[in-house]
Amino acid sequence: PVSALALMADIPSGLLEACVVVGAASDKLRELYQVATLQGRAKETSLLEAEVLQVHAPPFVTKESESEARGQGPAFSRVPRRRSFIKKKRERPGAANGEATKGVNGGVGATTEDISVPKDLDLIALPQLCFPGGLHIASEQREDSYHYLVFTDVFGNRTHAAVVQYYRPIQDGVQQNGLRSSSKSFRLYTPYGICVISKYPYYNALRDCLSCLLTQLKSCRMGDFEERVKEFSAKLALVPIPPPGQVHVVFSLRPLQIGLPPREGKDRPAVDLDLHLPFLCFKPRQLLQIVTSLLTEQRVVLFSCDWARLTLLAECLMLFIHPLLWQHPYVPVLSRQMLDFLMAPTAYLMGCHLNNYEEVAAETDDLILVNIDDGTVLSSRSDKVDLPDVPLAAKKCFITRVEGLQMHYDLELCHLGAGTDVNNLRAQRRQWQRELNTHIQNITMELIVNIFREVHDHLNYEHRVFNSEEFFRSRELVDQPFYKKVLDTHIFHSFLRDRLNRKMDAFTRMELSTRTEAHRLRSMTESPRRPTMLEMARKHTTPESRLSKRLGASLPNLGEEVVSLVGPVRHTSFKMQMETGLRSPQKPFRSFKLPEFPPPLAYHYVQNYYQEMITLLGKAISVAAPDDSSLLARYHYLRGFVNTVAGKRLDALEDFQNLYKTDTDIFPGELVNALVDSLPEGERAQADRRPEIKRLISRVKRDHERERACGDDDGAVKRFQLPKKHMHLDEFVRHVQESGIVKDLGTIHRLFEALTVGQQKQVDPEIFRVFYTFWKETEAEAQEVALPTSALEHLEANECVFKLSSAVKTNHGVGKIAMTQKRLFLLTEGRPGYVEVTKFRDIEDVKISSTPFLLLRIPSLKIKTTLRKEMFEVNLKSEVDLWHLMIKEMWAGRKMADDHKDPQYMQQALTNALLMDAVVGCLQSQKAIYAATKLAHFDRMKFEVPMMVPKTTSETLKHKINPSSDRTSPQAVEVLLYTPGQLDASSDSGGDGNPKLWCALSDGKVVVFDAASWSIQQNQIQLGASRVNCMLGVDRQQVWIGSQDSIIYIISARSMSCNQQLTEHRSEVTGMALGDPRLAYSCSAEGTVISWDVSTLRLRKSFRLSCDHLQSVKLCSGSLWCCKCREQLWTAFIDSGELCVWHLGDPNKPFQIIHLPDCAGVTCLIKVKNQVWVGGFGRSLAKTRGKIYVLNTQLLAIEKELVAHTDRVQALCSAEDRYVLSGAARDDGKIAIWKVE
Predict the structure, then answer these.
(1) Which helix (H) or strand (E) is 270 found in, with range?
(2) Is residue 779 within 8 Å of 529, Cβ to Cβ?
(3) Most buried in the list 131, 541, 979, 1111, measured by CB within 10 Å?
(4) pTM of the entire predicted model
(5) What is the dihedral of CA 885, 889, 895, 899, to 10 degrees?
(6) pLDDT for 92 beyond 90
(7) Which DSSP string do the residues of 696-709 spell out, in sequence order?
(8) 120 exposed, middle or buried (CB, 10 Å; 0-12, 13-18, 19+)?
(9) What SS3 string covers 1165-1183?
(10) DSSP state of 558
């Protein structure tokens, strides 16, 4: 069998990747020392060439030959067997490739066998980087000096390093080579550079490790130097990397305790440096200039007289722009010999010594020169930096946040005494730094969110298109230079790809959590973009106030007042929401302390060390709280990792199986796949005999094959382009959706009919161009509408002007007719004024007439309303037919919206009206008005099918919402679940405390609504690719979702993410029920019923029933039933309008049958108070109609018959017995909210 280690090419290693010792060649030192001795004085030489003297890389120990045959191998390593590399002679080129080498003392016998070095390690450039200022011989002892390096390979993967330069006397080494030294000889000192390389950016930890190493090296003889470094390297190779989460790995390297902080999430890098350093070097405005230079992909050079600052500042900047990733050359430290790198024509971020500032500035144009020591940002071309400003609102917010940072640790020590334990003092400092780092990361993430918040409004997910022109036009004029440069960068393109992939990263989480209520409501509609009255009112305020509207713009909300389950909708300001979003409490962390290091170069000691680590992790798992699944997952991850490298493959797979059940978010799929591939035949047979491990192997292999099939391409990002050839319907649909004008398929089909009236059914590209241009020009004109203050006072804050007529004469004066989503009004000319014409819901009649004028009759429009006796007459001349169509459509949409309590009808009517305007504008022919009638959807419906809503239905129905609002066509509502709010919820708990409505759509998609405002809180949670059958709220912290793929997915109600699964069922999960707060039941189609411990997610009991297709479980008086209602059991037929009621108290009593009128089948039923609500469907005129019947449980009589939807009712749920929510099948796809009486 192939060794596991040989198959783990891409698996994370331990802390150490390699340790390299760099210094001057021994023959050069000998020659220099002899010259100094002969001259009788010590002369400091200017420079010596640095060379690689040693390379130490894991694994450092190997098992005996018979163990190797069994494929076991220790050490956290991704590389083949390797031992130390020692530089021999400079003239031997083979030494750099690992041939026989010579020790640092120059002895001819200190040779080793041929070995290899890490494949990504560049030994040629490394000496220069370890001594970027050159290797200088000194006549006196100098202080140790640390700096940091970053290496980037051709694939963009980064490796990190910490380097220490420390000095040793030359004469000690020379004496060991047989030279005599008198007491009068002069002492010379040579520096050695020790470079510790890791795949992970643990800069502070690596520096601390080197500090511990130096305490040993300074007291050891030169002959022990190599062995001490090798032992040190072997110890670091034993240190595992903590998984994302809250577990820190702590180990002891005397005299210090050193900790490795985990990543906050799998999408974020580990942070082990002081993020406040840039704020100590630069003012916020200069820091924003540097961020802008990165976002616009400039050529940026950092300067400092301290090499360490270069990398630390550069790494901070990389974290500040996260999740945008710098994709250009990144070399934070350039040695003197590498300055020609700065001539590269591409964008880059590099750093060099301050001594080279003048030379670099003079020799190279178009550089952004960042002086870390002086805190200045300049251009090499001129004294003024030609960079656009960060968008003003985001800039002001960032500066305000930074002013509130507490960055002085000394202030934290004022009330403390002098500490005597260095490790305690270090722990206090680390805790303070961790909290400050979290705050800074929130501030910088908020900056990125504020800059790119509205990008998602201009994305088309179906066709992967970003409408950059529309996004750019929607920016403030003062911000457009910034976006003009940013939108064409590689860094932004990669960011767009992640957005189109719906990546749930830190950016997405903050953007969702800080959306205003108006923005959430606006995202539920497909309203054309226009400035609201609130935004227009800001135009009359100061320019800064007008610009800051981007943070809190009240976007169009076409709905009227809607029912809320917790009182009125809260109008929370953006500022308040951002404060809440930034609180992000410091999560409690746990430390896992590694055992004391063994002698690291002896195999059996290393194996015992692994076993001791496994035992400690087992104890940690046993004492952890059973309901703390997050902590348990991290311990299982670590133990599985240690078991893997210790050769205990089956134990490792068992740990990873437990990890998969408790937190799939950190599941190491690549590692487990490599582990499975390395299993010998005997162990693979044992694994196949253990059902859970066998299922894990199958799942991992399936996921691996799926990833390979998908490849590395996450999908291209396209920019919208106008079509260049004639379009049939399918192509026309795609181009309209890509343009962002409208998504709905039905509307686009009607638009296609309108643009192809009287011709072949294909749209000319020129017609499309004119139509698109007219649409965009109309949008732009609306942005420039200047309303007088009197008009702003009469209109609601969320109203927008969508259409403005030319100057016309009316029976109330001369002016322009304006149309919002709610009303018509007249803007009088001469003395600007406001005259209300009518609200659309108040219209009684609209007709075209004519008004005599001299010998002519001018077409006019007459509008009759319920609030005015006289008709309003306006001489619209050539515009009269268009306005007549638009007003009638808006009137019909308003009536539909009021009757069906569904504001989306009004929004759809508005879109239809504006499309009519664009069609007439682009066709400019006699058939234009006839073409526009194709878009009069609601006006036509009013005549073709009377949409009268029965009185009972109208009185009971409170509101409708659409979970498919961002999709091209309705999706069936499969399951609904209401979860109550939490009165004691606070920002620290991570939730808003509001009740939620969970709606499962087709193909495993779940949409979450805030039931306080009925705005979408989470647009899409993807749970596999199969249908959701059932949902269950558990402990107000979790939602369990049973799927057709036999998995129960567990969603955190706080984070809205799924990282836990229950996989014990063998067929589709069909039902779930909650017993006491710690016990839950689930059933699957083949008859298996399982009881679960809610806190530990462990299976408590399982049994199987002999039934054909078990549909559901319900708990009633300690017994499990398929349905329940106190002393009655209600059953229904899916293909018949009948209910059967069984009396549980008297089994001999015959059941009763209830016939449901006009019902062809029942799909769901629930009990609410003393009623049973039954969802089903009837048929009328060959069309399916969703019906709801409300029955009295005592009288067994129908109390109400509700006409609910235009397709069958598929789901019902109760909201605290005050409301019932119904979800409909695909042709309707909406959720209705009903009042319970």
Answers:
(1) none
(2) yes
(3) 131
(4) 0.84
(5) 150
(6) no
(7) HHHHHHHHHHHHHH
(8) middle
(9) EEEECCEEEEEEEEEECCE
(10) -
Q: Mean pLDDT over all residues of the chain?
A: 82
Element (H, E) at 230: helix 225-237
Q: What's the number of CA atoms in the CB half-sphere (13 Å) around residue 611?
A: 6
C-alpha distances out from residue 303 to 81, 350, 353, 480, Å: 40, 9, 5, 30
Q: Return the SS3 of 882.
A: helix
Tokens encoding 376: 């200045």
- In this predicted model, what pLDDT tens digit does every residue of 1179-1214 receive, in sequence order? 877 788 899 999 998 888 999 999 889 899 999 999
Residue 939 identity (one-letter amino acid) = D
**Encoding tokens for residue 94?**
């083979």
* Residue 1006: closest CA among 993, 995, 1016: 1016
Q: Dihedral of CA 839/841/844/848: which sign?
A: positive
Q: Which residues pair with 789 in a beta bridge?
A: none
Helix (H, G, I), strand (E, B) or coil at 50: strand
Three-state secondary-structure class, residue 84: coil
Q: Which residues of 345-381 are buried (b: 16+ CB within 10 A; e: fewer)?
A: eebbbbbbbbebbeebbeebeebbbbbbeeebbbbbe
As a whole number of angstroms, the distance between CA 553 and CA 537 comes to 11
When mean pLDDT is compared across 164-168, 203-207, 466-470, 1182-1186, the lowest value belongs to 1182-1186
36-62 mean pLDDT: 76
For 458-498, the pLDDT digits (tens) are 888 888 889 888 899 889 999 999 999 999 999 999 999 99
Cis peptide before 255 (omega within 30 of 0): yes
pLDDT digits (tens, 9 = 90+) for 656-692: 999 988 888 889 988 899 899 888 999 989 998 888 8
Count Cβ atoms within 10 A of the Cβ of residue 444 and give its class: 0-12 exposed, 13-18 middle, 19 or more buried: buried
260: amino acid identity, one letter: L
Closest C-alpha among 822, 817, 816, 779 to residue 798:
822
- ∠ CA 469-471-475 to the nearest 5 degrees? 115
Measured in Å, how far apart are the chain's first and last C-alpha atoms? 71
Asked if 881 contacts 923 with a C-beta cutoff of 8 angstroms, the reply is: no
